[in-house]
Amino acid sequence: MQWFKNMKIRAKMVVSFLLVIALMAALAVFAVVNLLAVEGDYKVAIDNPLTVRNSIVGYQTNFRDVKESVAKMILYAGIDPQQCAALADTAKTSFANAISSIDAAAAAIETNPKFTREDKDKRLPNTVAIKELANQYNTQILLPVAEAAIAGDREKAFAIYQTDAVSPTIREKTNGMITTANETSEEYVTDAESTTNRTVLLMVIFAVIAALIAVVVALYLSGYFSGLLVPMTAFLTKAGTKGDLTLLKEDQAGIEAYSRNTDEIGRMTAGVVAFVMRVTDIAKELETVAGGDLTSDIKPLSNSDVMGNSLQKMVGNLNNMFGEINNSTSQVSAGAKQVADGSQALAQGSTEQAASVEQLSSSISEIADKTKTNAEMAGRA
Known about the structure:
By secondary structure, the protein is an all-alpha fold. 88% of the residues lie in helices and 0% in strands. It is rod-shaped and about 230 Å long. It is built from nine helices and no strands. Helix 4 runs antiparallel to helix 5, helix 4 (117-151) runs antiparallel to helix 6 and helix 8 runs parallel beside helix 9.
């Protein structure tokens, strides 16, 4: 997943959303394809067996009309030849319609996409047999009865009509085909319902998988962003409000891991890490200066390095100031020494003067004593 981490944030978002959209599109396509398949199954289940059933019912209806026309021709035989002829034409038309209906049923069976060749070979012989029975009825019953009825021979027409052994077989086979068509339709409907249920289940599973993938992508992106922003925000808040630049080991490991990525988050993290390291170095240099060590040599990163240039300038100014103070102290020390020497000389002169004064005082005391003595002697004198 490193390739994904190194992608731009915009590319990450685009890829993630495209993945979700692709999943939704695939789900939509899957749903449409399966719904069309289900629709096709239902269409086959309804149209094809229904066509067969309706064709057989149409055959039965037309064949019933044929038999009804034959029966009426017997009634009109010898009474109304023209009516018999008209009924014969009606019977022939109904017979042609019946043949068309059985041909339509055979075509529907042949074109059924769900039928195998075995299924077709099992059903088509019934249509052939019914068609042959219809032709047999036409040649053995319909045409002879029509001919006898038009000729006015009712007894012959009725005798021919009574020899009909085809109709029960036709009825049996057509009813069997209708039953088979109904069973086929029910089977198709059951299969279509199973396909529908299976399709719905697959769509639900596909939708759940797509939703889970979308949630995983969302959680991954949120975790990717919050994994850096949370410790970074906590650190910057602590640094801005308390001035504390310490970084927990686990947060430091996570931040360093993010800094190895080449996307915007990685570059931002690398920049923040470099900034924090620079601020930490400046803080250490300040601690060194605060401890009284002005030998620190901070190197600015560039002319725009405000903190580095300011710290370098401050250290230089402090060194200059303390150098001037040191020079002034040396001068004051020399002056103080000169003052001390002068004071010592003055003290020595004062001591000598005090000794002279003491001698003078002694001399004056002696003079005073002698004067007093002289005065006493003068008084006695």
